[in-house]
Amino acid sequence: MEHLQAAVASDVFNQVYVLHGMGGCGKTAVAITLFQRATAESSRAGLWVNAADRTTLRSGMLAVAADRGATEGELLAARNGLRAPADLVWERLDRSAEPWLLVLDNADDPAILQDGSWLRTSPRGTVLVTTRQAAARWWPHAELHHVGVLPRDAAAQVLYDLAPETGTVEEASEIADRLGRLPLALTLAGGFLAQQVIDPWTMAKYGRHLVGHERVDLIDRGAAALTDKGSRQLVSQTWQLSLDALAAQGLPESTALLRLLACYGSDPLPLTLLNSSELNGVLPRSRAESALRGLLDQSLTTLVDIGVRCVQTHGVLLASVAAGTPPEQATHVSRTAVRLLDAVIPAIPERGPQDLRLRLLSPHVLALLRHATEVSVVAEALDVAVRLAIALHRTADYLSAWELASEAAAVTEPVLGPEHRLVLSALARAGRTLFRLGRFEESAALHSRVLADRERLFGPDDPDTLDSYDATSRPLNTLSRVPESVALLRRAVEGRRRTLGPVHPLTLSSRGALLEIVPASDLATEIDGTALPLSQECALELGSDHTITLKARLNHANALYRLGRFEAAVEDAHLLAEEYPQRYGPDYPVTLSAQTLYAQIRAALGDVSVAIELMATVADRRERVLGAQHPYTVFSRQCLEEFRARAAPQSSDGQP
Prior knowledge:
Elements: H1 2-9, E1 15-20, H2 27-41, E2 45-50, H3 54-67, H4 72-79, H5 85-94, E3 100-105, H6 110-115, E4 125-131, E5 143-146, H7 152-162, H8 169-178, H9 183-195, H10 203-209, H11 216-221, H12 228-248, H13 253-261, E6 269-270, H14 288-297, E7 302-305, E8 309-312, H15 315-324, H16 327-344, H17 356-371, H18 375-394, H19 398-416, H20 421-436, H21 440-458, H22 463-478, H23 482-499, H24 505-517, H25 520-528, H26 534-542, H27 547-562, H28 566-584, H29 589-604, H30 608-626, H31 631-647
Parallel strand pairs: 1-4, 1-5, 2-3, 3-4
Antiparallel strand pairs: 6-8, 7-8
Helix pairs in contact: 1-2, 3-5, 4-30, 7-8, 7-9, 8-10, 9-12, 12-15, 13-14, 13-16, 16-17, 16-18, 17-18, 17-19, 18-19, 18-20, 19-20, 20-21, 20-22, 21-22, 22-23, 23-24, 24-26, 24-27, 26-27, 27-28, 27-29, 28-29, 29-30, 30-31
């Protein structure tokens, strides 16, 4: 602490410090103390990020970028994969007006930091990492500090300070030895002793209950010999006594609740998850409040507020509880954990603004998939994971959606098999997000693979196969494989029309997509070959403000523009250019696409000054969001220059 505090108190920057040690040894406690001192005494901005997995790391780092002044447009582009998220974060950190301390907590998988180039140095701040991984290859150019278990006297003092009325310092020393002097175990033991009211325990009584669980062999081998497995064993001695005490106080439901929490991860878990009738599968919903209060009183979990009220439990404790759950109960608890998640994820996710609550659920869905062993539970959990990935996708959080879908498929394929319908659904969703991320070749390859499997396994008229026809056509069109793309999309339209009906939302969506990709020579047939324009059909069936209706209107206006029917297109294009910003914000990709189309139509009608003003705004927004070299920005600048050239005065010989 003295060394780290001196570092953040000085003007030394461009440095990474790594605190490493086993779970429960107090790395995060050290980081919190340094964080508090740096912000209170050293006038540094404090930035804290959970680096436990890709999704929470990226979400936290983008919050850092926002704190350091990144605009909504820049953040949206980073979430969509249209610019490198880490580059945005470190650009903002390097330009910070005040020095800072950035803590990357729980970085137990250093590959996550390396994959995105998240760990860097900066002339404006200092980075502190907490991790269980000590190998120097993970931390080049960093200064490593080992955090072991506490010295005997300090360990005894921790326990004595938490429960001073229950025994002597010497008795505390004996219990500390039995608990391996592990800070987490000492904290749980002290919380237990301090909370006994009806039948207070002494340290001597607590020590007698540890008989048979002594870890003298670990102590004799020294603190460095303790492993994460050993720490889980030590912690298990403390939480079981705490749960036994809660049961004796009339709160046996606390045991059930802790076993339920052990199905999830150590990230913050939204409390709304526990406010569901599905909780009755494990404990009466009416007892959830008192059960949670018991866990809080015994220091077995804690409340945190990160914009959403959450409960958070130490990973070592969760692993220990999960390992101690009887096998005959584990499946039932896991199934309830799945159904609680199922209850809070929209059945039919809608497009809309990003939702922090959805991102918070992602690591818990993956933890549950890894935790479950019963095939039926794994299948239920994967179904929930796919729906959550769809929800994230429709809030334009494409990176999170891709990570969740691809990881869920990888985790469950060994259990369910590569041809399971839900595994293929997860892969298909990953393919859609790859397309949105601009990785067109990868998207086309993955969709083609899934399509071949679905055709072979389910037949050409199966809803999933029809979905693959539609999805595969998109990247193929972008890759200029237009005939293949159009043929697949027509299969989707015809199949959906035949099996679902001509005005089913999916049929209408595929019909609208045809207007985007068919060659100009076929557009007139698509536009004029129906009694009612597609956009009006969508409005009648789905409502005028439905997302499919809006997209159909945009596709219809674009088709009219491509056919040179500018007067017919201008009114709807104008309305859409105003509606999209109100619905999705001024920097959302489809907003800028709608405004670009409107500018092109106005220019075609001779209203060049209006087109220039609008396209200048679009180009500036795209440059700020995507960067000057992005193809969309380049296209916007080209359109702007073209419009300006049209507006330039002509000389008598026809030259500008």
